[in-house]
Design a protein that fits this description.
13 helices, 3-stranded parallel β-sheet, 4 domains, mainly alpha, about 325 residues
Length: about 325
C-alpha cells in the first residue's frame, strides 16, 4: 500500500513535468542524477564507507553526544519492552536503509541521508523520555562523559569559528561563535542538574540548546558568510549589467568547474563544460558556444583553466572570438 500511495502521489507530477520538458527533466533526474551519481562520483563528491556515519553524527548534533548511551538503551529497550522494541526496530531499519543505500553509491553528500534523521528521532525521543520516568537512565560515569564531551565540543566549535573568521577575514562570522558557547553551556548545565538530582530537566535543556545552536549557526552564521561571497557578487554584477542593456538574455558557460549555487543566484542557466580544461575537446565546446552566442559570458574557474584560455586564444587561428575580461574574483574558501 505504501508503494502504491507513493506512486499515485508522485506519478502525475512526473508525467506532467516530463511532458512539459519533452522528457529532458526525467532523463536528467533519473539517469544522470540518480543512476549517474550512484555509479560514478560527480563534482568531486566522493568518500569512504565512514562518510555517512560521520555525517550522521554531525547531522544529529548535539544529540549525538549521547550516541553510546542511546545505543545501549536501544539494546535494553528492545530486549525488555515489546512496544519499545517495535519502535527501536523501526528506527534502526529507517536509519540503516538510507545509510547502506547511499554508502553504496559513489557520489556522497551529507544531505542525502537527511530523511533518516526522522527515524533517529524515534530512538532519541524514547531515550530522553527515561530521564523523566527514571526507567533506565545512563550510568553515572556515562552521563558525566556526555556532559564533558558536550562542553569540550562546544568550546572547540566556538574557537574554530573565531579562528576561521580571522583566517578568512570574515569578522561578521565571529557572532556565530555563540553557537558553540550555547553547547558548552548546556554541557556545564548537565553537571548542575545532575548534582542536584534534577535529571528530568536535561531533555528540555538539550532541546533549547539544540534549537539555539541551529538558529545561531545557520541563521546568523550562514548569512554572515554570504556577505563575503565575492564570486556571487561578481557574477551578479555582470548579470545586472546585462539585464540593463539589450543583452539581458545573454548565455552563460563555465569551464574548469562550476558551483551549483551560481545557477540559483544568477537565476540563469549555465552550460557546464564537463571535460577537463586540459582536453582540447573542452575548448572546442567553448568555441562552438561563442560562435552560437557571440555576446555570451564565459566563467573560467581556476588558474589552470585561465592559463589554458590564454593559450587557446593565442593559438587559435583565426581567433574564435574577441574575449574581454569583465571581472576577476577569488573562489570562496578555496
Amino acid at each position: 500500500p505504501g508503494v502504491l500511495l507513493s506512486v499515485l502521489a508522485a506519478a502525475p507530477w512526473y508525467i506532467a513535468v516530463g511532458i512539459e520538458t519533452n522528457g529532458d527533466f526525467l532523463r536528467g533526474f533519473f539517469l544522470e542524477h540518480n543512476v549517474g551519481r550512484a555509479l560514478g562520483s560527480m563534482e568531486g563528491h566522493n568518500g569512504s564507507l565512514l562518510f555517512y556515519p560521520v555525517a550522521f553524527l554531525v547531522g544529529t548534533f548535539p544529540w549525538s553526544m549521547w550516541v553510546i548511551p542511546v545505543v545501549l538503551w536501544c539494546v535494553k529497550a528492545s530486549r525488555d519492552n515489546l512496544v519499545q522494541r517495535q519502535m527501536v526496530v523501526l528506527s534502526a531499519v529507517w536509519i540503516g536503509v538510507y545509510m547502506l543505500a547511499f554508502s553504496a553509491a559513489s557520489t556522497k553528500l551529507p544531505s542525502y541521508i537527511t530523511p533518516c534523521y526522522a527515524g533517529a528521532a524515534l530512538a532519541l525521543g524514547g531515550f530522553w523520555r527515561q530521564f523523566e520516568t527514571a526507567w533506565s537512565r545512563p550510568a553515572w560515569a556515562m552521563r558525566r562523559i556526555a556532559y564533558l564531551l558536550t562542553a569540550a565540543v562546544g568550546v572547540l566549535i566556538a574557537v574554530v569559528i573565531v579562528w576561521l573568521s580571522k583566517q578568512q577575514a570574515m569578522p561578521l562570522l565571529t557572532q556565530a561563535a555563540w553557537a558553540g558557547a550555547v553547547i558548552a553551556l548546556v554541557g556545564a548545565l548537565g553537571f548542575w542538574w545532575d548534582a542536584r538530582g534534577r535529571l528530568d530537566r536535561l531533555p528540555t535543556s538539550w532541546l533549547v540548546a539544540a534549537g539555539l545552536f541551529q538558529v545561531i549557526l545557520f541563521g546568523f552564521g550562514t548569512k554572515s558568510v554570504d556577505a563575503y561571497r565575492t564570486d556571487l557578487a561578481a557574477l551578479a554584477a555582470v548579470s545586472q549589467a546585462d539585464q540593463a542593456t539589450a543583452s539581458g538574455t545573454t548565455a552563460w558557460l563555465a569551464i574548469g568547474g562550476m558551483e551549483p549555487s551560481w545557477v540559483h543566484y544568477l537565476a540563469h542557466e549555465i552550460v557546464e563544460v564537463r571535460q577537463s580544461e586540459n582536453d582540447p575537446a573542452a575548448w572546442e565546446q567553448v568555441a562552438a558556444f561563442l560562435q552560437q552566442h557571440p555576446a555570451g559570458r564565459v566563467i573560467v574557474v581556476g588558474d589552470s583553466a585561465y592559463e589554458k584560455l590564454n593559450q587557446w586564444q593565442r593559438e587559435s587561428s583565426p581567433p574564435i572570438a574577441n574575449l574581454n575580461e569583465l571581472v576577476v574574483a577569488p573562489r570562496f574558501l578555496r
